């Protein structure tokens, strides 16, 4: 009973404190609630003695801090796997009421990365789906990027492809007309498409993500699903094309998993994918440590 009450009190107290309470790295272990910008929360899974951390950001739509999909806390499970490899991790909430990509991702991810860079020697960023699409924007603030189930094409084109699945000929014509409208936006007129305001699409255009991807200097791991029902395999090929001249880019196609890297037969997160990512992170960390020792 004492342990149960103590655990409950610990969770309550941790939610009351601001991020500044957790400023001493290496002096605690386990999972801790933290708060960014007084608006969103995150869970830091800190491994005592770890100098390597990965920030995990999710895809489009409203998602919770554990990135729960079909009852599976994708990022919560990944955090446990990373901890087994002595890698700390941070997963954060994502705003679902944002009118721009800055509000939805940029402001909060920059705050989270600033927090981690103050406390860890090596910081990596893992993005899934839309999170992978925008991740290259943050390349100057990290030691490496992991892009899972992402895409290179314009987000409008990917959304249109999803809408066209199982659509009739007439519906496809409407979708293509709407896509043409949204791709040629010049100002915010209040038009909404795919449940998203014009202002959001206009803010995406300002990021110039394809240029960011081509100009990457940090190590990159692109992981794609062989059974992705949401993003076409051609996007994996586009990543290979855009990063063809990158000296430290790796590409892995994982068979028999869906868009969320859940095994299609067992219905569980494929932990071999997480182990692959963890091994890649540790390899990059080792290279970074050796390079800094030689400076």
How many angstroms does the end-to-end distance come to? 53 Å
Looking at CATH, which topology would you report? Rossmann fold
Strand content: 15-25%
Radius of gyration: 20 Å
Please work out how many helical segments DSSP would assign. Answer: 10
CATH homologous superfamily (4th level) name: Alpha/Beta hydrolase fold, catalytic domain
Structural class: alpha/beta
Mean pLDDT: 85
Count of spatially separate domains:
1
In short, what is this structure?
This protein is of the alpha/beta class.
Structure description:
The chain is an alpha/beta fold and 295 residues long. The N and C termini lie far apart (53 Å). The chain has helices at residues 2-16, 74-84, 101-117, 130-134, 155-164, 169-183, 198-205, 209-214, 234-242, 271-293; strands at 30-36, 40-46, 52-57, 68-69, 72-73, 88-92, 122-128, 144-148, 192-193, 196-197, 220-225, 249-254. The radius of gyration is 20 Å and the shape is globular. The chain has a single domain, classed as Rossmann fold (3-Layer(aba) Sandwich). The strands form three sheets. An eight-stranded mixed beta sheet has the order 1-2-6-3-7-8-11-12, with helices on both faces. It has a two-stranded antiparallel ribbon with strand order 4-5. Strands 9-10 form a two-stranded antiparallel ribbon.
Helix and strand arrangement:
Layout lengths: L1 H15 L13 E7 L3 E7 L5 E6 L10 E2 L2 E2 H11 L3 E5 L8 H17 L4 E7 L1 H5 L9 E5 L6 H10 L4 H15 L8 E2 L2 E2 H8 L3 H6 L5 E6 L8 H9 L6 E6 L16 H23 L2
Parallel strand pairs: 3-6, 3-7, 7-8, 8-11, 11-12
Antiparallel strand pairs: 1-2, 2-6, 4-5, 9-10
Helix pairs in contact: 5-6
